[in-house]
Specification:
Strand content: 25-35%
Structural class: alpha+beta
Number of helices: 4
CATH superfamily: 7,8-Dihydro-6-hydroxymethylpterin-pyrophosphokinase HPPK
CATH architecture: 2-Layer Sandwich
Number of domains: 1
Distance between the termini: 27 Å
Length: about 160
């Protein structure tokens, strides 16, 4: 565990089963991770699969204050995915739950298991739009303009 907590950003998504419930339960589970406090969670958004097939996704972004090292956070997120029944039959397969570390403080990391910041975070409306809601300082208009053709809809009044 880190001695000093960092702010981490996690993207949440699901497109199998009750995706809304899965994302909401995952947001609650993030708050229960060791050495971690849930700071903010965006509204829920519906988006078409990006570079994938299957039903629409339900997405959100969460900001955490955590003492977990980057790989320990990844392990905890993958355990939550497993508990939700996540299977990985092929790349970009539909999923019961998908949790991605987008940022971990100012950490820059490139390992076979984890790259930080997430290498494609700035190319995906399903990350940028909810991120702009909870951490507007991370998202500028040029980034949002670049993803404006990716369908995404805020689900009014719904929060995880």
């Amino acid at each position: 565990m880190l001695t000093q907590a960092v702010t981490a950003c996690v993207a949440l998504g699901a497109n199998l089963g009750d995706a809304t419930a899965a994302v909401a339960q995952a947001a609650s589970a993030l708050a229960a991770l060791p050495g971690t406090q849930l700071l903010r969670v965006s509204s829920l958004y519906r988006s078409a699969p990006f570079e994938a097939q299957g039903p629409d996704f339900i997405n959100a972004v969460a900001l955490l204050q955590t003492h977990l090292e980057p790989l320990a956070l990844l392990d905890a997120l993958q355990a939550l995915e497993q508990a939700s029944g996540r299977e990985r039959p092929y790349h970009h397969a539909p999923r019961t739950l998908d949790l991605d570390v987008i940022f971990h403080g100012d950490t820059v990391l490139n390992t076979p298991r984890l790259t930080l910041p997430h290498p494609r975070w700035s190319e995906r409306a399903f990350v940028l739009v909810p991120l702009a809601e909870v951490a507007p300082e991370r998202v500028n208009l040029a980034l949002l303009e670049a993803v404006k053709d990716q369908p995404i809809e805020r689900l009014t009044g719904l929060r995880p």
